[in-house]
Amino acid sequence: MSFITWKDSFSVGVPSIDDQHRKLVEMINNLYDEFYKGITDEFLGNLIKELEKYTVYHFSYEEKFMKLYSYNGFKEHKGEHDQFIEQIQGFKTTVSKDNKTAVIDFATFLKNWLLKHIMGTDKKYSKLFSEKELY
């Protein structure tokens, strides 16, 4: 069972960004799956590193095109990205195989943040990026 099931309604109309969002969903689902299999600190540490690296890549990708296309919501959008990265840093000190509550809080945070961000903030650039034929 998946923690997040990708739906067509999550699409921002840009295949490259949708693929990146799917990758983030996959990472969150992996966390969920491992939690129920018996999560390890090694897995958590690796996941957080991978998540940090991938979100920097993904956020940079989005922000590059926001700048290129003079997207009006850039500052607010980047602020959400920066805040997310800060929040991930905070979880690094609390999540562990021995702190199940923190792992659940972390997974729930990731799911809620990502879906809210895609469905709200990211959808705002969807029309502009589609008009520019970004793929």
Structural write-up:
There is one protein chain. By secondary structure, this protein is mostly helical. The protein contains 4 helices and no strands. The chain is 76% helix and 0% strand. The protein has helices at residues 15-38, 41-68, 74-92, 100-131. The protein has one domain (14-131): Hemerythrin-like (Four Helix Bundle (Hemerythrin (Met), subunit A), Up-down Bundle).
Secondary structure blueprint with pairings:
Elements: H1 15-38, H2 41-68, H3 74-92, H4 100-131
Could you write a compact summary of the structure shown?
This protein is mainly α. The protein has helices at residues 15-38, 41-68, 74-92, 100-131. The protein is built from four helices and no strands.
SSE sequence, one letter per element: HHHH
- Mean pLDDT across all residues, rounded? 95
Under CATH, the homologous superfamily reads: Hemerythrin-like
CATH topology: Four Helix Bundle (Hemerythrin (Met), subunit A)
Q: Segments where pLDDT lies below 50 for 5+ residues?
A: none
CATH class: Mainly Alpha
Beta-sheet strand percentage?
Answer: under 5%
The total of beta strands comes to: 0
Helix residue percentage: over 70%
Write the CATH architecture name. Answer: Up-down Bundle
Which structural class matches the secondary elements?
mainly alpha
User: C-alpha Rg, in Å?
Assistant: 15 Å
Shape: elongated
Which sheet architecture does the biggest sheet show?
none
Number of helices: 4
